[in-house]
Amino acid sequence: MTSTAAAPYRGRFAPSPTGLLHAGSLVAALASWLDARAHGGQWLVRIEDHDQGRCVPGADAAILGQLQALSLVPDEPPVWQSRREPLYAAALQRLIDGGWAYGCDCTRKSIAEALAAREMERPRHGELVYPGTCRHRHLPAAQARAWRLLSTADRAGWQDLTLDWQDRRLGPQWQNLTQAVGDFVLRRADGLWAYQLCVVVDDAAQGITDVVRGEDLADNTPRQIRLQQLLDLPQPRYLHSPLVRGANGEKLSKQNGAQALDLADPLAALRSAGAVLGLPPLPGERPGDWLAAAVAAWAARSGGPSLMA
Q1: Helices 221-231/195-205 angle, 10° precision
Q2: Known binder of ligand: residue 254?
Q3: Contact at 8 Å (CB) between 241 and 169?
Q4: Could you tell me if 48 and 213 are in contact, meaning their C-beta atoms sit under 8 angstroms apart?
Q5: Is 239 buried (19+), middle (13-18) or exposed (0-12) by CB count in 10 A?
């Protein structure tokens, strides 16, 4: 796996067009923009619309309009995941040919029953840990409902795999991928590409050196690092920013009633997002002036590649 250490900084914001930006997504967008600017780098926008069934018509254009109103303008034209399917297909085929991906015909019900037989329960807000039912079945491609990646250290599927990495805000991280996640899906039974594969392929194709995103995605990192290893792709640096939480204490999201940003006062929205990121009160009567001060504040505490410790 190649390193991004010497590459010019390239960051990105990757919203899903399932609705408009809200306070939580603005925090992620602002953190990624500030980090890119503080490092003298480029900032890109990628529309993650691989799951078309969840996308709201016109939301992609509306999100780009919201970013424009906030003076968060990408340095290159945005890209859409829905237009990049050949890249994902090539990556999956490479994993299949290498013996790391296999076909699976399990249903959610059969997985749940297999776990129940082992007296294993799904954690609250967690995922079903795939029990490896199809790992050694060698199903023909025509019988595969989905495709999964071996979460083990060996292609035989017996040795647990533990991954560790350094998060620029959260510090040292590790996960036993085999036990915590299991063999995860690369292409779903309905034919849709899984987020994990898409994001890894796209980050590499766009030359992303630094991934700055919300803390709720931190546990995705080991899956993505494993794919980077197996596909011989660069591993970006990671920074997971604080979350905006709703009245119930859980992450603010479209699923729990987050309202679209009120951009009647873009400066107020930026100030609020900056406060979540720990920025002090900053001068500026216009968004551009405030952003310039915010970049300076972000850079002052970054000390280079280590930030928000």
Answers
A1: 60
A2: yes
A3: yes
A4: no
A5: buried
Residue for token digits 């059969």? 110
Nearby residues of 64 by Cβ (< 8 Å), 6 or more positions away = 45, 78
For β-strands 146-149 and 79-80, DSSP reports them as unpaired
16 belongs to an annotated ligand binding site = yes
Short-list 84, 75, 78, 50, CA closest to 62: 78
Residue-averaged pLDDT of the chain: 90
Task: Name beta bridge partners: 241.
Answer: 214
15 among annotated binding-site residues:
yes
Query: With contact defined as beta carbons under 8 Å apart, do 49 and 83 qualify?
Result: no
Tell whether 106 is in a known binding site.
yes
Q: What does the alpha-carbon distance between residue 6 and residue 194 come to, in Å, rounded to a whole number?
A: 30
Element at 125 (helix H, strand E): none
Q: Tokens 């997002």 sit at which residue?
A: 273
214-225 pLDDT per residue, tens? 999 999 999 999
- The token duo for 259 is 């309202």
Give the per-residue pLDDT at 303. 56
198 is in an annotated binding site: no
- Average pLDDT for residues 98-109, to the nearest whole number? 94
Q: Which residues lie closer than 8 Å to 288 by C-beta, 6 or more apart?
A: 71
Tokens of 35: 């980090």
151: annotated binding-site residue?
A: no
